[in-house]
Amino acid sequence: MRILAIESSCDETCAAIVEDGRKIISNIVASQIETHKIYGGVVPEIASRQHTEAVCYVTEQALAEANMTLDEVDAIAVTAYPGLIGALLVGVNYAKGLALASGKPLIPVHHIRGHVAANYIAFEDLKPPFLCLIVSGGHTMIAEVSDYTTFKRLGSTHDDAAGECFDKVARVLGLSYPGGVNLDKLSQGGKVDAFTFPDPKVTGEPLSFSFSGLKTAAINTIHNAEQKGIEINKCDFAASFNRSVANILCSRLMDAAKMTGYKNIVLAGGVSANSHLRDAVQTACDKNGYKLYMPPLYLCGDNGAMIGAQAYYEYQAGALADMSLNAQAYKDIF
Hints:
This protein has 334 residues and is of the alpha/beta class. It contains 10 helices and 10 strands.
């Protein structure tokens, strides 16, 4: 089964064709990074307009790269939630138009489920059940994935997501958008023990996270140094902060694995590209005898292929939509 998938939840306009949830036939991404870099972050109105300009082009390119016509596609999939509402509406309405015009089934996909499904493309042997750490700019959670469309929350953040924490600290350090990526780059070669940051706990929820206090502590360290005329070694600061966040995420994940007994561990989401997180989780999994699945870097960020992969399993579960489908800025993954 070949699915044409559209993704437009934030600042990338994407289209891909995926076969049977596992094989990429084509995967086109039009990034808006250079546009939003001017403003230090994503401007929703501008993002929506650029999606409108790019969505036809990326879809045509995806079909051309696959050497297919729309008639040869078996279904249309689209990210319907969660995300920036204006951005989502562009993709949803375009996908509805394609489905209506072609008579193909329409498959709505949850963006975060798509991030998990990126691993199905990269690893043919990966099948549920498994334990998954999902980390992105808007989400941080540990989930039990019992089958392709059934998720159970074991722990999540009570305030900031890890990716949001990275971005805000990067901004205070004077780094350009995308902050988390540039903070990771800056950290390379820095001393991971040069600065110490807190590891906030959530009372009664050992697998949950709280990054607001950690973020505040990091920002206060920068501001206090500035007020005293002390120059911070930004490379060391970035390395220490990255390592602190990675250790927090990794420690909760290992605790969850021990509590549940899962041996297969999966990383998902844009922050799964973070080098400190990948190193920390790989080391911990090797030490404990767990098998780790991490998406290749090109599948960590938003892309249409991951939506097409999850759409295959949503289709098999009967999760189809009609022309009443609407975008939602927020919708739980569970």
